[in-house]
Amino acid sequence: MSKKLLQQINTPSDLRKLDPSQLPELARELREFIIDIVAVKEGHLGASLGVVELTIALHYVFNTPEDLLVWDVGHQAYGHKILTERRTKFDTNRQLGGLSGFPKRSESVYDTFGVGHSSTSISAALGMAIASQLKGENKHHIAVIGDASIASGMAFEGLNHAGVTDADLLVILNDNAIGIDPSVGALKNYLTAVKEGKNPKQNNMIKSLNFDYSGPIDGHDLPTLIKELERLKKVKGPKFLHIITTKGKGLQQAEEDQVKYHAPGKFDATTGEIIKKSEEHLPPKFQDVFGLTLVELAKNNPKIIGITPAMPSGSSMKFMMEAFPNRAFDVGIAEQHAVTLSAGMATQGMVVFCNIYSTFLQRAYDQVIHDVALQNLPVIFCLDRAGLVGEDGATHHGVFDIAYLRCIPNLMIYAPKDEIDLQNILYTASLGLKHPIAIRYPRGRGKNADWKFPSDFQKIEVRKAQKLKKGKKVAILSTGTIATNVTAALNEIEEDGHFAHYHFGFVKPLDEKKLHKICDKFSTIITVEDGVTTGGFGSAILEFAAKNDYVNEVFLCGVPDYFIEHGTVDELQQFCNIDVDGLKSLFSTVLEEDE
Ligand SMILES: Cc1ncc(C[n+]2csc(CCOP(=O)(O)OP(=O)(O)O)c2C)c(N)n1
Ligand SMILES: CC(=O)[C@@H](O)[C@H](O)COP(=O)(O)O
Ligand SMILES: [Mg+2]
Q: Where, in this chain's numbering, is thiamine diphosphate bound (predicted)?
């Protein structure tokens, strides 16, 4: 179908020239445009489809970019990007060198705040609103936040503050009753009661926080939305609009299976059918190795508990939730709570597997230190999506965990080299450890198509590093699944026992006995990791060498000291020179120099 209206719009001021009667047609065109491109280029789908009308109404009513609009998480901001000067580039979304999948200040003046991690929008927009007041500027400030994201502690901190200000802040709650997985918790029940009219108006909790509350209204009804936004524009102080939308709106399958269509991969734009890749003979996803192994272990140990903050599907904690609903908890977007809840359970002798994406654990740093490590509670952190995650980009790479966890006393860190190693460390942790442990593993699939399940678990000796290959001259020390790249690179160069390769599953505690032997035997050491080298595994080896007066040459390979953008994992590893070819050329150079 034609996109006559959309093609006329490069900026929101073009949009504001349209007659209100043309906006529903624009919404149809925008939706179709998003579907056509995401079907081929992949990305987040359902959330953006759900806010098409809201996006149009906001840019129609408010004077963006003068008025400041903050999208929470930003996975729903595709329509916003398309209407704000990026329509012709939208087909590069999330690709190397292309548009970011999330709003980003350096990308556009319309992206007022960089997002990706949830629940920041209220604080950020309030900060802007207070700054505008202080500067004597007359602007509107709008935060758009979803029902799952508003349940997070940080959003409540923002609301709590905003309610005692007279800042020009409009919070729009986009309530579609789902996050990535169905929303959870008492707040969800409260919002449902409000929607069903079961909550008396005088008991409205948002009103009681001193907001001008309106809604709930139909977020797909453009005339109603526009009328209400026009009204709110004139209201002073903090305001809260509750709108009801359908995630995936306009694509039947996306509306019916909202979990799958959050980010469906490639699909047929006309039928909506997801284009399935054959999964036969493919190695397992690490998340499934985690999820299925946990269930297996939990069968024999009633003390095992699983906790996820809002990622039951992404982490595969859903298997545990299905098998043992009483012992598995989705606590919503609440990483801080997830960590301290785990600590509380651990005080009572439970064996808690707290699964958090590496990047999202950053939010619960104090809880890891203060509530877990300081009390030496043996919580088992399973950090999925460690390393470079690919198209989600800089906000989501799990590259800092080794560096930010390594300095915490009591906390052990383990990075398995493959699926079996992951299973075995989960098993080992389930037997009971004297300390908390963080087990980090990457997004995506392993390499072992012959992975057997269930398997014979092997206990892993704490601290012990493993020799993967013998060699005489240079020692390569790797941690985690990047070992596979090292092995492949070594297999591709002609070397006759020049390089030895060691897998350091334990980054902490380090196998110092083996390190002494390595430092004595090899004058050159190369460390390889898929996280930042600043403070990471390589740094740990350098610290060991310095502390023990070794003067070996140590080369660190890993993620450099700047933020890595989006692209495929292969492209980004190549960029960091930790792909097979990058490592091969480094090893070849070392080999040539030695000969
Ligand atoms: C701190 C943090 N934890 C988890 C996530 C992963 N995540 C991204 S979107 C999302 C669900 C958001 O749901 P909601 O706010 O209701 O927005 P919707 O997708 O429904 O539009 C989650 C859990 C995140 N981005 N940030
Ligand atoms: C927007 C967001 O934070 C999530 O949707 C994230 O993109 C999920 O990542 P995975 O696809 O790795 O589960
Ligand atoms: Mg939602």
A: 75, 116-118, 148-149, 176, 335
Pocket probe mutation, ligand 2, options 120, 396, 443, 566, max atoms within 8 Å of Cβ = 396
CATH 3.40.50.920 positions along the chain are 466-594
The ipTM (two decimal places) reads: 0.99
Q: Which fold has domain 466-594?
A: Rossmann fold (3.40.50)
**Active site includes 247?**
yes
148 annotated among ligand-binding-site residues:
yes
**Given ligand 1 and candidates 49, 120, 180, which is best to mutate, with the most ligand atoms within 8 Å of its CB?**
180
Amino acid identity of residue 272, one-letter, is G
Q: Which atom of ligand 2 is nearest to the CA of 314?
A: 13
Rg (CA), the chain: 26
Q: Where are the alpha helices (DSSP H) in 136-185?
A: 153-162
281 is in an annotated binding site: no
Q: How far apart are CA 57 and CA 83, in angstroms?
A: 11
pLDDT digit string (tens) for the chain, length 595 residues? 677 999 999 999 999 999 999 999 999 999 999 999 999 999 999 999 999 999 999 999 999 999 999 999 999 999 999 999 999 999 999 999 999 999 999 999 999 999 999 999 999 999 999 999 999 999 999 999 999 999 999 999 999 999 999 999 999 999 999 999 999 999 999 999 988 888 877 789 999 999 999 999 999 999 999 999 999 999 999 999 999 999 999 999 999 999 999 999 999 999 999 998 877 788 999 999 999 999 999 999 999 999 999 999 999 999 999 999 999 999 999 999 999 999 999 999 999 999 999 999 999 999 999 999 999 999 999 999 999 999 999 999 999 999 999 999 999 999 999 999 999 999 999 999 999 999 999 999 998 877 776 678 999 999 999 999 999 999 999 999 999 999 999 999 988 899 999 999 999 999 999 999 999 999 999 999 999 999 999 999 999 999 999 999 999 999 999 999 999 999 999 999 999 999 999 999 999 888 7
Measured in Å, residue 376 CA sits from the centre of ligand 1 at 31
- According to CATH, what is the number of the domain 286-440? 3.40.50.970
Residues of the chain with CATH 3.40.50.970: 6-262, 286-440
Give me the CATH code for the 6-262 domain, please: 3.40.50.970
| Phi-psi label, residue 97: left if phi above 0, alpha if psi -120 to 50, beta otherwise | left
Token output for 20: 């209100």
The closest-lying atom of ligand 1 relative to the alpha carbon of residue 149 is: 15
How far is it, in rounded angstroms, from Cα 61 to Cα 54?
A: 10
For residue 262, the ligand 2 atom closest to its alpha carbon is 5
Q: Is 178 helix (H, G, I), strand (E, B) or coil?
A: strand
CA distances from 233 to 137, 139, 451 (A): 15, 10, 59
